[in-house]
Design a protein that fits this description.
5 helices, 3-stranded antiparallel sheet, Arc Repressor Mutant, subunit A, 2 domains, single chain, mainly alpha, 129 residues
Length: 129
């Protein structure tokens, strides 16, 4: 089963998943601002995606008491769809599809850190400091 079978794009799933993680970690509704930080997406992107999720009844949002951001929480429908659709993402990552292999190689190359915590531009872990 794919995300399309659940009528979700990867960005919609990713924002839904990040929202659920933040709610779980804090035991409270989360802000769109926190979702921006978690996903590294801009405010406009997260606002648009949250609007789509809210329109589909997957999240509810209300104004934050302080600030200009919305507080977000998943609806029961959102929780159910996230559980069902997460299996599709996990299955795709578990396969040995060429694009997954390429993504893993890219992540290994671009995301490796040296022992001082800075990016190693050569793509390897520099242990000699």
């Amino acid at each position: 089963m794919t995300l399309r079978a659940h009528d979700l794009s990867f960005p919609l799933w990713w924002v839904l998943r990040a929202t659920a993680e933040l709610i779980y970690e804090t035991s409270d509704a989360t802000s769109q601002r926190a979702v921006c930080v978690r996903t590294d997406l801009g405010k406009a992107s997260v606002s648009y995606l949250m609007g789509v999720l809210a329109g589909r009844g997957l999240v509810d949002r209300g104004p934050e008491f302080e600030g200009d951001s919305y507080r977000m929480w998943l609806t029961k429908r959102g929780e159910t769809l996230l559980a069902q659709s997460s299996f599709a993402v996990e299955s795709a990552l578990a396969t040995d599809a060429p694009f997954v292999t390429q993504l893993r190689q890219l992540a290994d190359t671009e995301g490796s850190l040296d022992t001082e915590g800075s990016l190693d531009t050569e793509g390897s872990l520099d242990t000699e400091t």
